[in-house]
C-alpha cells in the first residue's frame, strides 16, 4: 500500500492539474471559472471574427451586384446609339425641391422623374414629332367616329387636345401638293364685298383672315378671337342670313346629315354651299350628290383636283330642307392617316 503524499493529499492543490487548467481554461482549478479578462478577450475575438465574415459576405454581394449591373449596362450600351446614350443620361431623378438625391427619408414626398431636353438633340426632336403625330392620329380617328356634339364635349373638357390636333393637321397639310382652303379663298375673293359667308369647321379661321367679305367662323373650339365655338349642327345664326356656306375638310363625325341640314337652314335661297373633301371618303360621288340634293340643294359643279381632293358646288333651290323622315342618312368614310 502506498502512503499518501502529504503534499498532494486531500484538499491540497495539485501543481500538475493547476498548470493544465491554467493553460486550457485560464482557471486555477478543475472547477474554477474562467477569468473575466479571458472571457472578454474571447468574446472580442468572436465578435471580430463574425464582423469579418459579415463584411466579407457584404463585399461579395456588392461585387456580384456590380458585376451583374456592369454586364447589363454593357448590353444596353451595345444596343444604343450615341444619341440614345446621351438621351438616357439626360433622365434625372429629382426630389420635390429639384435637387438630386439618391436617398430620401420615408416622410419625404414621392420622387418626380423629369426628362430634360438635350441641347441640339435630333433624337429628341424626332421622338417629340412621333409622339405628337400619334396623338394627332388618335384625336383624328375619334373625330371621324363620333358625333359633333360628343367631340365638342371632349374638347370642352381638355381644350389642349384641339391644339394638338391642329398642329398635327398643319404637319399633314405641309405635305400636300395643294391646300383646299386656298381654293376657297380664291373663290370668295371674287365675290362682292357685301357677301356673307359661313365657314363650318373653320380651324384657325384662315378664310376670315384672308378675305374682305364678312365671314362667320365656327368650330368646336375658339382657337382665336375670330372663331365662335359651337357644334356645327347648331350654329348661332338666323335662318337664310348667309350667301355662301363652306365645308372645307370639315364634314367629320357620324352625323354629316345634321351639318348639311344646318347649312340649308342658314343659307338663303339661291345661295351656295361649297364642299371640299378628300376623294377617297366617298364610296360614290353620285350617291352623295343625290343625298345632298334631298336637303333642298342642286349640284352645279364638281371637280377633282390635286389627285386627292374633290370640290362640290351646290345652290339652294328651296326655302328649307324637307322633314327629317324624308331626309337620307349621309355617310362618308373616315379619313384615317397612316402611321409613317
TrEMBL record:
Keywords: Chromatin regulator, Methyltransferase, Nucleus, Repressor, rRNA processing, S-adenosyl-L-methionine, Transcription, Transcription regulation, Transferase. It is an enzyme of class 2 (transferase). Residues 36-46 have a biased composition (Basic residues). The keyword Ion transport does not apply. GO terms for molecular function: methyltransferase activity. Pfam families: Methyltransf_8. One of its GO terms (biological process) is chromatin organization. Residues 1-121 are annotated as: Disordered. Its EC number is 2.1.1.-. Residues 55-64 have a biased composition (Basic and acidic residues). The keyword rRNA processing applies. GO terms for cellular component: nucleolus. Residues 91-113 have a biased composition (Polar residues). It is found in: Nucleus, Nucleolus. SUPFAM superfamilies: S-adenosyl-L-methionine-dependent methyltransferases. InterPro entries: RRP8, RRP8_N, SAM-dependent_MTases_sf. It comes from the Eukaryota. Probable methyltransferase required to silence rDNA. Belongs to the methyltransferase superfamily. RRP8 family. This is Ribosomal RNA-processing protein 8.
